[in-house]
Amino acid sequence: MDPSSIMKTSEQGAGPDIITVDSREVYANRWMTVREDKILRRDGSPGLYGYVDKPDFVMILPFDRGLVHLVQQFRYPIKSRQWEFPQGSWEEKPDADPGELARGELQEETGLIAGSLIRIGTIYPLYGTVTQRCHVFFATDLTPGDNKLEHEEQDLVRATVSVDELQRMILDGDLQDAGTIAAFGLARLRKLL
């Protein structure tokens, strides 16, 4: 079946797929809000849905002279160090321009200043449980500068690898960050790498 016909069928269907009957905040801190919603499905059956509201974030694929820049840091929820592209959000400015945020995060984590920054896509890394979107950028014409790590990022390690080495890291399981793998795929599909 053609995906466009599915959308048309759904749009012409008998109302929304799910109706939110009630929504309550279960927990909140400066980084996220956990919500629990009572819902009604299209067939009228009730349900309960828990999810996390988080501000959008950016991910930057820094590419210069045939090399890709990575960072590695300790990710507490999985208790391990992980390689990934520079990424982040500004909790104090949740409505910040994604391009401005991307430039800031790139310099903060790597010290690199992008002469060229293009948006190559938007992804939902975990839309079954988190509302957060990731705006993916491709950065080139990189100039070294001073990084401005936040206190929580003091353990951050930087590395520069070839595109072939990055692909090997992904295939061997040395790089497991879903957003980084998706960003790499977007760049490849757009023939930027």
UniProtKB/TrEMBL annotation:
<dbReference type="InterPro" id="IPR015797">
    <property type="entry name" value="NUDIX_hydrolase-like_dom_sf"/>
</dbReference>
<dbReference type="GO" id="GO:0019693">
    <property type="term" value="P:ribose phosphate metabolic process"/>
</dbReference>
<comment type="similarity">
    <text>Belongs to the Nudix hydrolase family. NudK subfamily.</text>
</comment>
<dbReference type="GO" id="GO:0016787">
    <property type="term" value="F:hydrolase activity"/>
</dbReference>
<keyword id="KW-0378">Hydrolase</keyword>
<dbReference type="GO" id="GO:0006753">
    <property type="term" value="P:nucleoside phosphate metabolic process"/>
</dbReference>
<protein>
    <recommendedName>
        <fullName>GDP-mannose pyrophosphatase</fullName>
    </recommendedName>
</protein>
<feature type="domain" description="Nudix hydrolase">
    <location>
        <begin position="53"/>
        <end position="183"/>
    </location>
</feature>
<dbReference type="InterPro" id="IPR000086">
    <property type="entry name" value="NUDIX_hydrolase_dom"/>
</dbReference>
<keyword id="KW-0614">Plasmid</keyword>
<dbReference type="Pfam" id="PF00293">
    <property type="entry name" value="NUDIX"/>
</dbReference>
